[in-house]
Design a protein that fits this description.
Layout: H1 2-16, H2 45-50, E1 55-57, E2 60-62, H3 65-70, H4 97-115, H5 122-140, H6 147-166, H7 179-191, H8 198-211, H9 215-237, H10 262-270, E3 286-288, H11 290-313, H12 321-343, E4 347-349, H13 379-395, H14 419-432, E5 465-472, H15 477-489, E6 497-504, H16 509-516, E7 522-526, H17 537-549, E8 560-564, E9 570-571, H18 575-583, E10 589-593, E11 597-598, H19 613-625, E12 636-639, H20 640-645, H21 656-666, E13 670-673, E14 679-681, H22 687-706, H23 720-753, H24 762-779, H25 788-816, H26 838-864, H27 870-895, H28 899-926, H29 933-946, E15 970-972, E16 975-977, E17 993-994, H30 995-1011, H31 1013-1019, H32 1022-1038, E18 1040-1041, E19 1051-1056, H33 1059-1062, E20 1078-1082, H34 1088-1105, H35 1110-1127, H36 1179-1193, H37 1196-1211, H38 1229-1240, H39 1243-1257, E21 1263-1265, E22 1271-1273, H40 1279-1295, H41 1302-1323, H42 1357-1360, H43 1370-1374, H44 1416-1427, H45 1433-1436
C-alpha cells in the first residue's frame, strides 16, 4: 500500500491534467453522472514518466505485465474480485497500455479503501483529495459538478466520523483525526455550488493549504523530480564514475524561485534592517521548578558547610597535607560540575498552550492539548513500540512484488499499512503502553507552536519544505533502508512537503541503485572529493549536499527547513507532526531538537550510557528554559537560512553539533526542544566502537575549548551565563579525566601507603553525610523512580571512560598546537569494527587488577592488624565500589550482553547503592574519637584520692571518709609514732599500705608533673597533682623512724597492715578499727632498693616544689640526701633479704655425695606482703635515685653515680630482669634509661631507650599484640605495665621532638602515636574501656561504639560496699552480682593478663582489681597526651600501609 500511495500520487497528477475524463455511472442506484469537461493541460513530467517503457514504483522496476500483476493485489495480499466498482470514481479511457495500467492501479487503490473501511490511511486521504480536486476544477471551469463525487467523499468521511465518535476516548494520535479536516473541506466544496468569484478564490486557497495541493508545490515537485530522473539516466549510461549531486532548490525553470507565495517573497526581500530580521520572534516562557530549586538550595548550603568543615576540621594531615589539599581541589572540581548540572534543574519551559491567549492564536484557533499519557512501565516498554516501527521500516520496500505475503499476520508488514494508518496505530499504542514514559516529566504530550485544527492536525502558518539529509558512510544497506523508509513515510502537516537526500560518503553502488528505485522524492548524493586535511567527515558530507541544494548567493526562504538524520535513526510516523509546528513559534526559532533512543540497548545493562537519560530528560529541558542550544547531531530540524548564516555544519571540530549550537546562539537564533522520543537508532555495541564514539565526542569538545577563535569564554556575543553553559560540556570531561582516577586511587593509596586524604572525626561524619546525600539528590534528581538506574549507569560510563577522556584532553591540547585529529565514523550493523578492543580496555583492566590486589591486601591487613582502622574499613568498601564498573566492562568485553549480564548489572546497581550507604554507616560507627585526656587525667586523680586513708583534707570523694585513724598513734619501743595517712595499695593486698609501690607511684606522678606541666595545667589538674605529691611525701617521711642526722640508725616502715587478716574480711576502710601491725627494715641491713625508690620520690617531688614551695623542697631534700648516702654506702642490698630463710640450714661437705634437700629461699609471711612485693634488683633503684638527685640539685656527681650504677646493673646478674621489658616498682632499669637519655642526650642512653621502645612497639619475644591492638607483656600482662611503658614512650618522644636529627624527630612522632594508640585502647577505642567510669562526651564520639563504658564491678572494698549504716561483708560486697554502689572513677583495672582483649567485668576476678601502682604511669601519660597536640591522632593513622617503612620497626 505504501508503494500504491506513491503511485496514486502520480496517477492523480496525470488524471487531473489529462485531455478528457469520462465518468462512468456511480454506485448501484446512483443517478446518472454528469460528465465534466476538463481542459487539456498536456502531460506533466510525472505523466510523461508514466508513459515510458519502464515504470518505477516503490523498489521495483515494472516491465510489461508485471505492472498489471502488481496491481492485482490488495493490502492483505488477496486477489481483488473483478468487476468491483469504486463509488464516485471516474473511469478514464486511454489508448496506451500505460494508461490502462494506470487506470487499473487507480481502481485497485480506491477499491482497497473500500475494503478497509476500518482503517483511515493515506489511500483514503488521496481518494478524498482527488475528488475534491475534481470539484475544484469543475467549479473553476464553470462546469457542473458530479454530485456523486461530493457524496462519495461525504460518505467515506462520515463512516470514519462514526468510528471516531465510538472510539474517541482511546484515540491519542492527531493523525487519526485527520479525516475531519477533509470532511469539513468537502462540505465546504459541496456548499460552494452557488458561489463564485472571490468566495471561490478564498475557498480554493483554503483547500490548497489544507490538502497540500497548491500549484506551486506541484510545479516544484514535478520540476525537481524530472531533473533528478534525467540526472540518474545520464549517470547510469556514463562510462566513468560520476558525482551524484542534488538539484538546486530554486532551479531556473521554476517560475517563482521559491515555495512561498509571491507576496510573501516580496515582503521577505523588503526586510533588510537587522532589527527586523524576524517578523515574529519567539517569546520564551519559563516557570520555576520548585522541587529543583529546593534541591539545589539545600545542596548549596551543604556544599558551603562541607568545604568549611573540610578546610577547618579535616586537614590536619601533617606531612601529608599536600596530598589532602590535592584531593580537596579535586572535590571542588566535582562540586563545580554538579553546580553546572544543577543549573538545569532550576527552570522549566512553559508549554505554549499554557500562556497563549485563548481563543486567539496566530491562526485564530484554539490550541489543542493532546490527551495525557498514562502509565509508567520504564524505558524498555516505550522502546518496544519504537522497535516495532523500526522493524517495519527495515522490512519496508524489501518484499517482492506480491509484498509481504509471508509476514506474520499479527505483526503486519508496513507495506500493507499506509503512512497515516501506521502513524495512527503507533500513536494509539502510546496510551496503552506508556509510549512517552521516557518523554516529558509532566506526563503529557503537547504539540506546541501554532494552533491545531479541529481534527488534530497542525494547521501551520507556513508550508514548510523539509530537506531531509541522511549522511552515511559504510553502514549496511539494511540500516540505511530502515532510516530512509521511515522518514519517507512519516506524516507531514498539511501543506508541507519533503525531499530526502541520501548522502553516501562511502560511494556504495548498492545504495545508489536502491535509491534510484524509490522515486523522485529521494535523491542520492555521492562522489564528493574529501580534502586531505578534513577533520570532520560528517560535516563535509552535509556541506557538500547543502552547497548543491542552496547554491552560493541564493536567498533562502524562511520556510526551507533542513532535517538531519543519522543513518541509523528511524523516525516515528509522528516525527514531523511533533516537530514542525515548533518552527511556527517564531521566525527566530532556528532549530527543533528531539531526544534519541536506541533499539539495541537495555536500560538495565547500559554500561556505556547510550540512553543518556540525564541529558535528554533533564539537561535538555533545562537548556530549553535557559534559551541554550545544545545540538545533538541528529533527529533535528534547522531552518536553512539559519544554517547558511552559520556557514553550514562546522568542519573545524569533531563535534559539529556542539559547535553548531554555539554558532546559532551567537547569531541570536532560538531553539526548541521536543521532549518526546520520535526516533529510534542503533547504538554501537562493540567495545571498540563505543570507546571510539566517546573519544570523538570528547576530543571535539576539547577542540572547541582550545581553539582561540571558537572558545566559548571568548565569544563576546554570548552572555556570561551562555559561555559558562557552553563550557559545561567541556568541563564535565575535564572533571571526569581528573576526578575519576583520583577517587579510584585514594582507597588504593590508603591500603598500600596507609595515607588517607581526610581526617575522619565527628565533624567529618556530619559533613560527609549531608554532602553525600545532597549531592546524590542533585545528580540523581528524577521525576520518576525508573530513571534512577539509567542515571547510575551514567556514572558507570564515566568511570569506564576516564582514560579515554585523559587521552582526548591530551589530543585536544596538541590540536591547539597544530596537530591533526582524524574523524572516525561510528559504524553500526554488520559494518561494525571487528578489531580488538585491547587498546581500550587495558587501562580498566589494570585498574581492576590493582583494585582486586588492594582488596585482598586490605582484608588481610584488617584481619592481622594490631588495631582496627576505620580508614581501612572505608577504603575496602570504596575499593569494592570502584571494582564494579571495570568488572562490568570486562565481562561485557569477554562475554557480551545477555540475560546473565543484565542480571549482573542489576546486582551491581543495588550493590553500589548499598555500598554508598555502608560507607556512611562505617564513618558514624568507627570514626576516631577525640578523647578528652584532660578529663581522664582528672578521673585518675579522683581514683588516687579514693585510695587515701587517714584524716582526709577534703570530702571530694563523697563515699569516703576518715579511716584508720588509729595509725596516727602507734607505740613502738616505748614511743608513739604517727603512721597515719598515705594510701591503700589495693590489688592483692587490699587496704594494706606498702611503702615501695607508694614511693614509686609518687616518683612517676612527680615525673609527669615535671615533663608534662602544660598538660596538667591545660586540664586544670596541676594543683591536684601537687596535693597528691604533698600527701604522699608526708606519709613517706612518716615511714622513716630516726633522724636525718643519723641516717645509719634509720628504720624504714615498709608495710602497715596484715594482708592475711585483711583478706579474711571484706569491709569498708572506714570500719576498720583494730590495731594493725607494721613492718620495718633497718637500713644497716641493706635496703638500697627501698631507699632508692624513696629518694627518687622525695627528690622528684622536691624538684616539683622547688619553685613554688621552697620550704617543702628543703624538707624533702633534707631527708633525700642522707637516705641516698645510705643507699649507695656499704650496706647495699635488698630490703627484704633479712626476711628470707636460707636454702639449706647446713651446708653439705664437699666430699659428701649426698645432696641435701634444699628449698628455694622463702619468706615467713606472718601477714606481710613480702612475697608479692619482693624486690629483685637494687642497682637500677640507686641509679633512679641518682638521676632524680641530679635533676633536683644539678650536681654532676649524681649524674656520674647514675651512670655507674646503670652500668653496674648491666654488668651484673640483675640485667636478666631487664629482658622482661617490664616497667614497674620492681623494674626501674628502663625508666632510668629513658630519664638518662632525655637528660644527657648521650647516644649510649638513646640506644637503650630506643631499643626498649622498639621491642615494645614492633613486638618481640616478650611483647605481643592482642587482636585489637593492645601491647601485651608476657611476663606481666596487666594494663598498668603497658601504661608505664607508654608513659616512657611519651616522655622520650617529647624529649626528641625537636632533635637536630631528622630520624629522631620522625621516631618521636612514632613514639607519641604509639602512646596515643595504647591509651585510646585503654579508654575504650575498640573494646570496653579499662578505666572505671570514663566516657567521652556524646559530641566527641561515635554513636555506636563497642567500648563506650568502663568496668562496673571494680575489685575495691570501699566502692563495692553499701553506704552506711548497712554493714558491709562478703555477701553484699565482694559477691554481690550488682554493680558497685560507688564509682571508683578513674581507676585502671588490671585487665587480662593472658593476652585477650576482653575480660570479665566480675568483682571476684583478678582482672577487675584496681591498685595504686596501676595508675602511676597512666596518670603521667594522660597529662602528656593532653599536652602533646602533635602529632594528632588522625596524623598518627597516616603512613602505615603495605609499602610504608616504619621509622621504628623498619
Amino acid at each position: 500500500p505504501n508503494r500504491l500511495v506513491r503511485n496514486l500520487r502520480y496517477a492523480l497528477g496525470a488524471c487531473a491534467m489529462s485531455s478528457h475524463d469520462e465518468l462512468p455511472s456511480g454506485e448501484p442506484g446512483a443517478k446518472d453522472v454528469t460528465h465534466l469537461e476538463v481542459e487539456n493541460h498536456g502531460l506533466s513530467p510525472q505523466q510523461e514518466d508514466l508513459h515510458g517503457e519502464e515504470h518505477v514504483y516503490g523498489d521495483e522496476q515494472l516491465h510489461g505485465d508485471d505492472y498489471a500483476e502488481y496491481s492485482d493485489y490488495d493490502m492483505d495480499g488477496e486477489s481483488l474480485a473483478d468487476g468491483r466498482s469504486a463509488a464516485g470514481v471516474s473511469h478514464y479511457s486511454r489508448a496506451s497500455r500505460a494508461d490502462s495500467r494506470l487506470d487499473r492501479d487507480l481502481k485497485d487503490a480506491i477499491e482497497m479503501v473500500k475494503v478497509s473501511d476500518s482503517k483511515i490511511g493515506a489511500l483514503r486521504k488521496m481518494h478524498a483529495q482527488y475528488l475534491l480536486k475534481r470539484v475544484e476544477e469543475a467549479l473553476g471551469n464553470g462546469q457542473v459538478v458530479d454530485p456523486n463525487d461530493a457524496r462519495s467523499t461525504m460518505r467515506l468521511l462520515d463512516e470514519h466520523g462514526r468510528e471516531r465518535d465510538s472510539d474517541s476516548e482511546s484515540e491519542s494520535s492527531s493523525l487519526a483525526d485527520s479525516a475531519f479536516v477533509y470532511k469539513a473541506q468537502a462540505q465546504a466544496a459541496q456548499h460552494k455550488y452557488s458561489h463564485s468569484g472571490a468566495d471561490f478564490d478564498r475557498m480554493s486557497q483554503r483547500l490548497e493549504k489544507g490538502l497540500g495541493l497548491g500549484s506551486d508545490t506541484e510545479s516544484l515537485l514535478s520540476m525537481e523530480q524530472g531533473g533528478r530522473r534525467a540526472s540518474r539516466a545520464m549517470s547510469e549510461t556514463s562510462e566513468t564514475p560520476q558525482e551524484y549531486q542534488a538539484g538546486a532548490f530554486n532551479g531556473e525553470d521554476l517560475e517563482t524561485g521559491s515555495i512561498f507565495s509571491k507576496d510573501e517573497s516580496e515582503e521577505e526581500d523588503e526586510e533588510t534592517d537587522e532589527e527586523k530580521k524576524w517578523k515574529k520572534k519567539f517569546k520564551r516562557r519559563v516557570k520555576i521548578n520548585t522541587r529543583g530549586c529546593i534541591t539545589m538550595g539545600i545542596w548549596v548550603i551543604c556544599l558551603i558547610f562541607y568545604f568549611y568543615v573540610r578546610i577547618a576540621k579535616t586537614m590536619d594531615l601533617g606531612a601529608y597535607l599536600a596530598y589532602g589539599i590535592f584531593v580537596l581541589v579535586v572535590e571542588a572540581m566535582g562540586a563545580s560540575a554538579t553546580a553546572l548540572y544543577g543549573i538545569n534543574l532550576l527552570l522549566n519551559p512553559v508549554p505554549p498552550e499554557e500562556y497563549k491567549n485563548q481563543p486567539s492564536s496566530p491562526t485564530g484557533k484554539k490550541a489543542v492539548k493532546a490527551p495525557p499519557v498514562t502509565g509508567s512501565q520504564g524505558i524498555n516498554a516505550k522502546k518496544k513500540k519504537m522497535q516495532w516501527w523500526r522493524r517495519k521500516a527495515a522490512k519496508g520496500k524489501k518484499k517482492g512484488k506480491k509484498g509481504g505475503s509471508d509476514d506474520d499476520p499479527e505483526d503486519p508488514d508496513p507495506d500493507k499499512l499506509s503512512v497515516e494508518q501506521s502513524a495512527a496505530s503507533f500513536a494509539s499504542s502510546q496510551d496503552d503502553d506508556a509510549m512517552s514514559e521516557a518523554s516529558h516529566a509532566t506526563g503529557t504530550s503537547v504539540i506546541s507552536g501554532s494552533a491545531l485544527s479541529v481534527g488534530g492536525l497542525p494547521d501551520l502558518e507556513k508550508d514548510y519544505h523539509v530537506r531531509v539529509l541522511i549522511p552515511c558512510y559504510k553502514e549496511d544497506l539494511e540500516i540505511v533502508q530502515a532510516t530512509l523508509n521511515a522518514i519517507r513515510d512519516a506524516a507531514l502537516p498539511a501543506g508541507c512537503s519533503r525531499t530526502i537526500y541520501l548522502l553516501d560518503d562511502g560511494k556504495d553502488p548498492k545504495k545508489r541503485k536502491w535509491c534510484d528505485k524509490l522515486g523522485d522524492d529521494v535523491v542520492y548524493v555521492s562522489g564528493r572529493k574529501r580534502a586531505p586535511d578534513e577533520s570532520n567527515g560528517k560535516s563535509g558530507n552535509l556541506n557538500n549536499a547543502l552547497s548543491q541544494i542552496y547554491p552560493a548567493g541564493c536567498k533562502i526562504p524562511i520556510n526551507e527547513v533542513v532535517c538531519v538524520m543519522d543513518a541509523d535513526q528511524v523516525a516515528m510516523p509522528m516525527f514531523f507532526i511533533k516537530t514542525l509546528p515548533m518552527m511556527d513559534d517564531g521566525d527566530d526559532v532556528a532549530m527543533v531538537l528531539s531526544p534519541q533512543l536506541f533499539n539495541n540497548t537495555d536500560v538495565h545493562a547500559d554500561i556505556f550510557n547510550h540512553s543518556n537519560i540525564h541529558f535528554w530528560e533533564y539537561m535538555q529541558i533545562g537548556y530549553d528554559a535557559l534559551s541554550f542550544i545544545s545540538c545533538s547531531g541528529t533527529n533535528f530540524l534547522i531552518r536553512a537560512n539559519a544554517f547558511q548564516e552559520c556557514g553550514w555544519s562546522p568542519t573545524w571540530t569533531l563535534t559539529e553539533d556542539f559547535a553548531l549550537g554555539m554558532e546559532l546562539k551567537k547569531r541570536g537564533w532560538q531553539c526548541r526542544y521536543q521532549r518526546e522520543y520520535l526516533a529510534i537508532g542503533e547504538a554501537p555495541v562493540q567495545v571498540r566502537n563505543c570507546f571510539q564514539q566517546k573519544s570523538r565526542w570528547c576530543k571535539g569538545h576539547f577542540q572547541v575549548l582550545f581553539d582561540r577563535e571558537h572558545c566559548p569564554i571568548f565569544q563576546h556575543k554570548l552572555s556570561w551565563l551562555q559561555r559558562i553553559m557552553y563550557l559545561q560540556g567541556v568541563w564535565s570531561y575535564v572533571v571526569g579525566a581528573v576526578c575519576t582516577p583520583t577517587f579510584i586511587a585514594v582507597p588504593i593509596v590508603t591500603i598500600w601507603a596507609g595515607v588517607f586524604p581526610i581526617v575522619l572525626n565527628f565533624w567529618a561524619a556530619i559533613a560527609l553525610t549531608v554532602y553525600y546525600i545532597s549531592t546524590s539528590s542533585v545528580l540523581l534528581y528524577v521525576t520518576r523512580w525508573a530513571h534512577l538506574e539509567p542515571l547510575w549507569f551514567s556514572n558507570v560510563g564515566n568511570q569506564i571512560m576516564w582514560f579515554t577522556y585523559v587521552k582526548a584532553f591530551i589530543r585536544g591540547v596538541s590540536s591547539a598546537t597544530g596537530a591533526k585529529i582524524t574523524f572516525k565514523t561510528t559504524l553500526k550493523g554488520a559494518g561494525l569494527l571487528a578489531g580488538t578492543a585491547v587498546g581500550d580496555v587495558w587501562m580498566p583492566f589494570i585498574c581492576w587488577v590493582l583494585l582486586m590486589a588492594s582488596l585482598i591486601k586490605g582484608l588481610i591487613k584488617m584481619v592481622t592488624a594490631t588495631t582496627l582502622q576505620n580508614t581501612l574499613l572505608i577504603s575496602l568498601v570504596w575499593v569494592v565500589w570502584n571494582l564494579i564498573p571495570p568488572t562490568l566492562l570486562l565481562w561485557y568485553w569477554k562475554f557480551g550482553q545477555g540475560r546473565l549480564f543484565t542480571a549482573l548489572c542489576k546486582m551491581a546497581y543495588w550493590t553500589s547503592t548499598l555500598l554508598g550507604f555502608a560507607a556512611l554507616v562505617l564513618i558514624w560507627l568507627f570514626y576516631p574519637s577525640t578523647y578528652n585526656y584532660g578529663q581522664a587525667l582528672g578521673d585518675s586523680h579522683f581514683f588516687l584520692k579514693t585510695q587515701r586513708v587517714g584524716k582526709l583534707p577534703d570530702k571530694s570523694v563523697s563515699w569516703r571518709g576518715d579511716s584508720l585513724l588509729q595509725e596516727y598513734a602507734i607505740n613502738f619501743n616505748a614511743k608513739t609514732y604517727d603512721f597515719g595517712g598515705g594510701f591503700m595499695t589495693g590489688g592483692e593486698v587490699g587496704t594494706t599500705k606498702l611503702t615501695m609501690p607508694i614511693a614509686w607511684t609518687t616518683g612517676m606522678v612527680a615525673w609527669g608533673l615535671l615533663d608534662f606541666e602544660e598538660g596538667y595545667k591545660k586540664a586544670g589538674e596541676y594543683n591536684e597533682g601537687l596535693r597528691y605529691l604533698q600527701w604522699s611525701c608526708e606519709y613517706l617521711l612518716k615511714t622513716l623512724i630516726g633522724t636525718a642526722s643519723k641516717p645509719l640508725n634509720i628504720k624504714v616502715i615498709w608495710q602497715v597492715g596484715n594482708t592475711t587478716e585483711d583478706n579474711l574480711y571484706w569491709t569498708r576502710p572506714e570500719d576498720i578499727s583494730v590495731a594493725r601491725p607494721f613492718y620495718y627494715v633497718p637500713v644497716s641491713l641493706g635496703a638500697s632498693d627501698l631507699l632508692g625508690q624513696m629518694v627518687g620520690a622525695l627528690a622528684a617531688s622536691a624538684t616539683v616544689f622547688k619553685g613554688t614551695q621552697p620550704a617543702l623542697y628543703d624538707t624533702l631534700m633534707t631527708w633525700a640526701l642522707p637516705l641516698y648516702g645510705v643507699a649507695i654506702g656499704q650496706y647495699q642490698g635488698l630490703y627484704l633479704d633479712y626476711l628470707k630463710k636460707p636454702a639449706c640450714v647446713t651446708a653439705p661437705s664437699r666430699a659428701s655425695a649426698i645432696v641435701p634437700n634444699c628449698n628455694p629461699p622463702y619468706f615467713p609471711l606472718n601477714g606481710s606482703a613480702a612475697d608479692t612485693y619482693n624486690s629483685t634488683t637494687y642497682n637500677d633503684d640507686i641509679a633512679w635515685a641518682a638521676m632524680w638527685m641530679y635533676r633536683a640539685t644539678g650536681d654532676g656527681g649524681y649524674l656520674d653515680d647514675a651512670k655507674a650504677f646503670f652500668g653496674a646493673y648491666q654488668s651484673s646478674d640483675e640485667s636478666k630482669f631487664s629482658e622482661s621489658l617490664v616497667v614497674d616498682w620492681n623494674n626501674n632499669f628502663w625508666s632510668v634509661a629513658i630519664l638518662m637519655a632525655s637528660q644527657t642526650d648521650l647516644d649510649a642512653y638513646h640506644f637503650q631507650a630506643q631499643q626498649f621502645l622498639h621491642d615494645w612497639i614492633c613486638s618481640s619475644e616478650q611483647i605481643t599484640y592482642t587482636l585489637r591492638g593492645r601491647a601485651w607483656n608476657a611476663n606481666k600482662g596487666d594494663f598498668g605495665v603497658t601504661a608505664n611503658a607508654v608513659m616512657l614512650a611519651a616522655v622520650y618522644g617529647k624529649s626528641i621532638q625537636n632533635d637536630r636529627r631528622s630520624l629522631f624527630r620522625t621516631k618521636a612522632e612514632r613514639y607519641i602515636c604509639w602512646a596515643k594508640g595504647q591509651v585510646r585502647f585503654m579508654l575504650g577505642d575498640v573494646v570496653n574501656s579499662a578505666m572505671v567510669g570514663f566516657s567521652n562526651p556524646a559530641s566527641q564520639t561515635g554513636w555506636v561504639r563497642i567500648g563506650k563504658h568502663g568496668p562496673n564491678q571494680a575489685h575495691d572494698r570501699g566502692a563495692s560496699c553499701p553506704s552506711p549504716p548497712t554493714q558491709c561483708n562478703f555477701i553484699n560486697g565482694l559477691y554481690n552480682p550488682n554493680n558497685n554502689p560507688h564509682e571508683i572513677r578513674g581507676a585502671l583495672v588490671e585487665g587480662s593478663s593472658t593476652g585477650f582483649d576482653d575480660w570479665p567485668d566480675v568483682r571476684t576476678r583478678n582482672e577487675s582489681r584496681v591498685a595504686l601502682e596501676n595508675n602511676a604511669g597512666f596518670t603521667a601519660v594522660l597529662a602528656g597526651l593532653n599536652e602533646l597536640n602533635k602529632p594528632t591522632w588522625p596524623q598518627c593513622l597516616q603512613g602505615y600501609g603495605a609499602f610504608s617503612k616504619d621509622p621504628v620497626c623498619g
